[in-house]
Write a structure and sequence with these properties.
The longest helix has about 35 residues. The chain is mostly helical. The chain has a two-stranded antiparallel ribbon. Helix 6 packs antiparallel against helix 15.
Length: about 325
């Protein structure tokens, strides 16, 4: 699945025919920078993971920090630049849209492609509580149309507490043979360092111009920035989760694929909402636009769907088809309505 195909709503022939050369220019910038943002984040995850392993950091700790935060890196960096550009409605739209995509699109794709129906998921009570509570907390904080700095601080503290409890729970567990096999030998390769540095340069650069293109397109096409963030941006920045999940599925690990969704959704709310607000002190939202609140309600439905599938320890293709159908309906409705 490519970003270009995911952005078919923006590249329909009838739409392109009606666009000015200026709009086509910004559309091209949007697509290219989104592709660069996703690819650079992928480079960052791979290189940072190798550096961490060679420095003696445990595979588990790398998994919940570098991998967990790394797959949310496109959302985080683009949200920071959105705030710096005074497009404060983009971060919450990005978070809600990405979390919806993670469940309905990514989980739906996993359910359709997976051959196993019985799961062996072992998510702790803390995992499930944080997953549900963070989704509810987001709705409470955005309902009045303003996301305050102290609400962002609550998100960051909750994320730190979640990571601390998770690490503490795993501290007594010895590394498995699979974890030990991941640890490479020898010194850090120069190419790995170069890739890490290049990704750290490319991520903010592509995010900056991606946000600039969103603002330009929303003005030229008279489409709300939050609509673009809920759909195209959220879909594009969810591609790392999709790729990671599909890779895990190919290795016969559907449980890892679903675990990636849980971790990413938690990081999206607690980090992607918690950090950007400190670049602006408050995030102002247009609550008169029903798409934000209705999308948050759909995110709650997605959270509930994920929770009950996890609790049932069963996943079927029928469930996957239903999840994908809901996501397609959601994206189409943003533009039709």
């Amino acid at each position: 699945m490519s970003i270009l195909s995911a952005l078919s709503l923006f590249t329909h022939p009838l739409l392109l025919a009606s666009l000015s050369s200026n709009a086509l220019f910004w559309l091209a910038i949007f697509v290219v920078t989104l592709m660069a943002l996703v690819k650079a984040s992928d480079w960052f995850i791979d290189s940072a993971e190798e550096v961490g392993l060679r420095m003696g950091i445990s595979p588990f700790l790398i998994g919940i920090t570098i991998i967990g935060l790394g797959t949310s890196l496109p959302e985080l960096v683009s949200s920071i630049f959105a705030v710096l550009s005074n497009a404060t409605e983009i971060p919450v739209s990005n978070v809600i849209g990405s979390n919806i995509a993670n469940v309905f699109l990514v989980m739906g794709a996993v359910a359709v492609a997976a051959r196993v129906k019985q799961l062996k998921l072992d998510f702790s009570f803390v995992d499930q509580l944080t997953f549900i509570a963070s989704a509810l907390f987001l709705g409470v904080t955005i309902y009045d149309g303003i996301f305050q700095w102290y609400e962002g601080l609550c998100c960051i503290l909750a994320l730190v507490a979640y990571l601390w409890v998770t690490v503490k729970q795993d501290a007594a567990k010895p590394n498995s043979e699979e974890d030990n096999e991941k640890i490479p030998e020898g010194a850090i390769k120069p190419l790995t360092i170069a890739t890490l540095v290049a990704s750290l340069i490319l991520i903010p650069l592509s995010a900056r111009y991606n946000i600039t293109s969103i603002i330009a397109l929303s003005e030229l096409l008279n489409i709300g920035k939050e609509v673009i963030a809920l759909s195209a941006v959220a879909l594009g920045t969810s591609l790392p989760e999709l790729f990671v999940s599909i890779t895990a599925l190919r290795k016969g690990n559907a449980e890892m694929a679903l675990g990636n969704i849980l971790g990413s959704n938690i990081f999206n709310i607690l980090a992607v909402m918690g950090i950007p607000v400190f670049f602006s002190e408050t995030l102002s939202l247009d609550t008169s636009d029903s798409s934000i609140i209705s999308s948050w309600l759909l995110m709650l439905v997605a959270t509930a769907a994920y929770y009950f599938i996890v609790r049932s320890q069963k996943m079927t293709r029928v469930q996957g088809i239903l999840l994908l159908a809901i996501y397609i309906t959601f994206v189409v409705s943003l533009y039709v309505l």
